[in-house]
Amino acid sequence: MSRLPPDSYTSRRLEHATPEHIHLTTRRAFIGPIPEGWLNSHRKQWYRYYVQQGGKRAPTFTAAQSVAADDDTTQEADRPLAEQVPRPSSQSAETQQTQQTQTGTGMATTSTTSLLRSQRNSAISAVSDRAVYSPTEQNGSATEGHATIDSVQQDGGMQQRPSDLLNPTRVASNMKLQAPKVRFSEATKLQFRSRAQRIAAMGNFKMSKIKPGELMKMDKMLVRIDITQQTIREDYDERVSRGVETKSLDKWREFMVVCRKHEQGAVLQLYQTRVIAAMADKTKKKPKAEIILSQHKAKVNMFSSLDKTLCIWTQEKNRTYIYYLRPQSGAASVEWYTFLRTVLGLARSTTLQVNVPDLSVSLRLDDPFRALESSEALRDAAAGDEEAIAKAVSDEQGAAGAIVARCLDMLKQSPQWGDVVKGWAKNDRIGLAWKRYDRLEWVHGAVEQKMYGTIAMQRTHDLELRPKDHYPSQAKSKKGNIVEEPAPVEGFLVRLTTQKGHSKRMGKMLFKRLYFTSQNQYLVFLRPARAKPPPPPKMKVKKDGDAPSKQQLIDETPIYYDVDPFPLDNDGQVAWLDTEGVKSTSELAAYDREASIEAARNTDMLMVCDGFIDMGDIARVRKFHKGANPLDDNLDSGSDVDFEEATSNNNRNDGNTNQLDESRTLELLLNNGLVIRLQAYNQQSRTVWISRLRQLVKYWHHRAKEDMDLIKSVREQNLHALQIDERAEAQVGSFAYKWEVSQSYASPLMYNLCGISYCRPIHMSGLLFRKPRRHTTFTRCHVILSAGHLLIFQDTLRKRGSGQKLVHIHHERIGSVDLTGCYLYSGLLTENDLLYQNQTFDSNAPGHHALPRIYLEDGWTSTDEDAMTTFVLWHAKSKSWFRSSHFVDDVKSRERSKSIGADGEVDSGTRAKTKTKLTRVSQLGVTGRSVVFKARSRAERDRWVLGIQVEIERLAAQAQREEGEEVRLDE
């Protein structure tokens, strides 16, 4: 049976989304042709990137289908795009007809059975009959039975992820394919062993005590130290801190935070080095600070429930020292919180409550981690066995899946909900999410893999079982009609307008060749030299490996074609997946690799874009209207702007002309009265561009309105449920206790899975106010969050001297923030970064400094304080060199193997000569640089913080896999 491995791109996409959703969010349309000048400069690179990486395979990109014509477009749009004659000078009608035939047969699939469809019925039966999938089975069959939850956990159910129970793709892959071998560094193995000992001690095993001075846990964190003369309560957090007057003793700095066993319990040490001794008596460098962790000397709490910043405070004489600890990952932060509470002797709750909001049911799970704590592998891991450590890590990664399985089993036992569970198994992916007031934090990635450590979030959050919702792909018009999201469009165009809307300078019309691609509601443009057009539907692979000639590529490439990495069959499943073993593993891998390359292509172009046109600002897409510009009377008919000509890689205009070809020019009329003129390859291309852009503009107008209406309705619903006003909501959203907001509503559409599962290149976007440095003022900007970067675009164009606001046609890119190595914190901890806060006085609300605000572009209102709308990105500004832990461990392993003689004894005279690998890392113990952002309200701030945190965690996990940990254990 052919199928993809669980860690493949397609499998990871299907884990959270349906095939239909993946198809809708990855399809695109290319409107060409590709200019000959561009092929002259980029032909070889373009060919090798797509063809040689994909190898010989059937194409997944098809010739474009027919495009519906609008009222003022020509009848040419009524014909299928593949039938329109491209480039008469380069391709005959006979060649074009042959090409159509090849394209049409290229999509024919030899399988009629989808990977998901064939196992749908078995998945439903598995849920209803309490089937248990054992990872040791090799025949692909399921063991059916009414086993208890204990047997499920012990027989392999603990290795299921939350979606495995309802996603047959993941189940089938995990049954047959073995999981990749986990690789640990020496420091990681020591931490896992110590952690296994702590978990085992909570179960039935009696482990040997950890020796004093032995390393228990360590991580890289951002640390800030405050001091106060007031006595702090045991529940000190962001809410309580408003009544505590503190003084900053040390600014935010990055340290290696190490916890060791101590005579009085444990000790927390802050190091300015990445080389950490396994035992305290072998330490070469003393820590900068030490915190004795004992019940009488230290207290710990989660300071912020949003960004998961921790706080530890100790009292010495009349002073209290407060240490704020901020790991990069939110999952690591909560895991540290659980660990520190355990060290201080605070017992973990033995019950877990899971709410099911769609059914208005609450489920109570007694001792949800009993199987993990009593696992034989955990006992061996605590003793130091490497294979057992890997097994224990794998068991914990399945803890979230086991919780989902137990909840579904309890619901299945009730006749009232049995049919609902079957419906979920058939149509939805089910997952866990932590809820607090109006926000949802999905259990995924690192949080899912460390569910045992992150369970302490139940002190501030409610755990819920929910279907995994995604960003909608349809909207309603004013008349109530459903508008489906059209496919994005891209291609080469010539812009005949400057940013200020000017079309002429010195009596001549300016022009600039650009590549346009639509991403969500943005029509993004970039220089052609940075563009990556999609590969054609069918391109022959030359045996010698050389790129075809320019003319060959022109002949083999249609002018119009659709891009569809995940085409659907008649049953709504991915057409190229099958369970009958018809397609070989290599063929499936080629399709999967092709889809991954297509996703990377869209992201890469977004990363290097020069600006965008917001389709929400477009009032109408039309043909050329003479007289739209007062200088049109001076233009001559025709055009000397060569579409095929190559262009330089700069932001300057390509030239000027006094001719205009009306037949291939389209116009975008903006709401501010300005007109953007774009020139296509020919009249047919212009017709398609007009039709496609009209559909996109219409849809995103409705979609943007629905998004704003959703945000407003969620707030109104919570105001009514909690009987509060908007001013009180600003405080409740940040500081309320869990029980105070238990009746609140959180929308899964606002906190959807698209950003987490990377369905679209854009994770988030919107308006923010940015302050690049502490001692500057805030400026309003458009921000796009994508692929671990914050792309910043100009919002308002102003005159240099007077600062007068100017109308403009597009938003230029002015900066980018790489989130690699960044830390994020928010709320009251940002007051020192704000410096100049709003100090207005509201006589109707004494003590409240923020006046009510309204944003005219969408009618959104806010009365939140400045600190409640602010978040800060901290990144190091000093670098140093460091030897990677994985590389050093490999060197030690090779040296030991080479120094062992035939008799098994170590040869002291043998030494392996190897080169050390240095990596660039941040320098510890020094201050960094902060970039301060303010959102329009607390609700928007929460969405930005959670979205950015997802990207930071993704980057941190990727860096650890590729480069290893930025810490080395010194034995």
From TrEMBL:
Pfam families, sorted: PH_4 (PF15404), PH_SPO71 (PF23207), Spo7_2_N (PF15407)
Matching SMART domains: PH, Spo7_2_N
Biased composition (Acidic residues): 633-645
InterPro entries linked to this entry: Mug56/Spo71, Mug56/Spo71_PH, PH_domain, PH_SPO71, Spo7_2_N
Chain residue ranges for the region called Disordered: 66-146, 629-659
Domain Sporulation-specific protein 71 N-terminal, chain residue ranges per copy: 3-64
Residues of the PH domain: 231-347, 487-700, 762-955
GO biological process: protein localization to prospore membrane
Transmembrane segment boundaries: none
Segments of skewed composition (Low complexity): 89-116, 649-658
GO CC entries: prospore membrane
Protein name in UniProt: PH domain-containing protein
